[in-house]
Amino acid sequence: MNILIENCLVLPMTAGAGEAQYFRATVGIAEGRIRMIDRDGSRTESFCRQWGADMQVIDGQGKLLMPGLINVHTHVAMTLMRGFADDLPLMPWLNDKIWPFEAKIDRDDVALGARLGIAEMLLSGTTTFVDMYWYEEAVAEIARETGIRAVLSPCFVDSRMEAFEKDLPATLERAAGCDRLTVRVAPHAPYSCSKENILRGVELCHRYGIGMHTHLAETQAEMEQVRKLHGLSPIRYFDQLGVFDLPTIAAHCVWVDDDDIAILRDKGVSAAHNPQSNMKLSSGVSPVERLLQNGVNVGIGTDGTSSNNDLDMWEEMRSCAFLQKLADNDPCTLPAYEVLKMATVNGAKAIGMEGELGVVEEGAIADVILIDIEKTHFYPRHNLVANLLYCGKAADVDTVIVDGRILVAGGKIVGVDLPALYAAMEKRVAEILRR
Ligand SMILES: [Zn+2]
């Protein structure tokens, strides 16, 4: 099915810093790519001649077209634990609540958690997510079925190596032949994985030609522990183990010094900034502005729903801006357009798809969203970019297109029975707690 979006505003996200621009155009999508951005009406007729036989027309009046949002760090199946463990520090939160709960869950639980999380992400305009979890093969299955784009990272800690060694090839097999799915290896963190096991992860990445995804420099306790054990900061320790010789996404990067930042830049490591998780778990404030100024690519992630507690990138973007302004004591830090870029352009770069995703451009992959801007909070329009960042909400997302397929239309997710999904989730978590 080809798509013609008539007469919408377009925010292409291709302009440089401080040059945000949007314009009115008719946009044509065919065979999964953006084929036409017609600003003067001169090309729509020929597009329709070429692609019109199997074409859906969307009225773009009152709507803004922009790239789909890219969530660069999450654990989507943790929807199972939403509201289960709150208001605790990281280590007791993990040791006393999350890990005991996770010890009881099986592959089908993860599949159900992923189904709810993916629906939540699509409805709020996220078109790509970078995941890390156990039974990642199950997440791959649901991502494949629902049509979203995903980077799937089977995760290990020392006590789960055996399960990981099975999950990685199973996830690779599940993702094979689907352009929307890629795979990475995820050592959970320097405090939960031995040196030997991290090196095993590096070896597997080289064997399969895939990248890394990890938690790094999240808390002060982690930094002190790694320094005590290995005499290095978490960033230097992972660099020394050869992790950064692979394409790497490092989630958090809160406790970093100038030398760490130089390593991240020189090795092309992308940081995944998770402001709401960092605030909720009191982990600290990542020096995002300093990372960006020093040439480190920084994307935005929600982290899992146990430490957020939702998968809403609009809230995450706004939190990113507000938190950094507060921490830097500088309202000029991270202006609106810069934060929108983090959630689109930088996200695409983090997963090695710069120019293909995160922009509305002819030739780019058609992962785009339409925002309903006929809402009270979008008026007046002094600055539509500022309105989007500071007032935009998940509920404003009208249409979501991934790989040229419409997955959300008129604010409703296509082909998913949400009440049945809610009922299945309630039944399942009651069962898990009884195990
Ligand atoms: Zn995480």
Explain how this protein is built:
With 435 residues, this protein is of the alpha/beta class. It has helices at residues 44-51, 90-104, 107-123, 136-146, 161-175, 195-208, 220-230, 234-240, 258-266, 275-280, 288-293, 313-328, 336-342, 345-350, 384-391, 418-434; strands spanning 2-10, 23-30, 33-38, 55-59, 63-67, 69-74, 126-133, 149-156, 181-187, 211-216, 248-252, 270-273, 297-300, 368-372, 397-402, 405-409, 412-413. The protein has two domains: 2-67 and 366-413, Roll (Urease, subunit C, domain 1), CATH 2.30.40.10; 69-350, TIM Barrel. The protein contains 16 helices and 17 strands. Strands 1, 2, 3, 4, 5, 14, 15, 16 and 17 form a nine-stranded mixed sheet that branches.
Chain-wise SSE layout:
Elements: E1 2-10, E2 23-30, E3 33-38, H1 44-51, E4 55-59, E5 63-67, E6 69-74, H2 90-104, H3 107-123, E7 126-133, H4 136-146, E8 149-156, H5 161-175, E9 181-187, H6 195-208, E10 211-216, H7 220-230, H8 234-240, E11 248-252, H9 258-266, E12 270-273, H10 275-280, H11 288-293, E13 297-300, H12 313-328, H13 336-342, H14 345-350, E14 368-372, H15 384-391, E15 397-402, E16 405-409, E17 412-413, H16 418-434
Parallel strand pairs: 1-4, 1-5, 6-7, 7-8, 8-9, 9-10, 10-11, 11-12, 12-13
Antiparallel strand pairs: 1-2, 2-3, 5-14, 14-15, 15-16, 16-17
Helix pairs in contact: 3-4, 3-16, 4-5, 12-13, 13-15
The chain binds zinc ion.
